[in-house]
Write a structure and sequence with these properties.
67 residues, 73% helix, DUF6199 domain-containing protein, DUF6199, transmembrane helix, transmembrane, membrane
Length: 67
């Protein structure tokens, strides 16, 4: 179960890094009509994706999580 969570972190982080518009839309874009993300929003989606991937890898390899 806990390994699944860390794998989801990695998958969602990869979406943020490689597809920042999708990540932005899933986060806040769905709330607005005909809205486009700013450059800053896309950069922050990529940076957040990098952090999510790092957290997922850390959780998988550290042995902190049971199972």
């Amino acid at each position: 179960m806990f390994k699944l969570i860390s794998i989801l972190f990695i998958i969602m982080g990869a979406v943020g890094v490689f597809f920042p518009r999708i990540s932005w839309y899933m986060g806040v874009g769905w709330q607005f009509k005909n809205a486009e993300p700013s450059t800053a929003a896309l950069i922050s989606a990529r940076i957040g994706g990098i952090f999510a991937i790092a957290a997922g890898i850390f959780l998988l390899t550290s042995g902190i999580l049971p199972g």
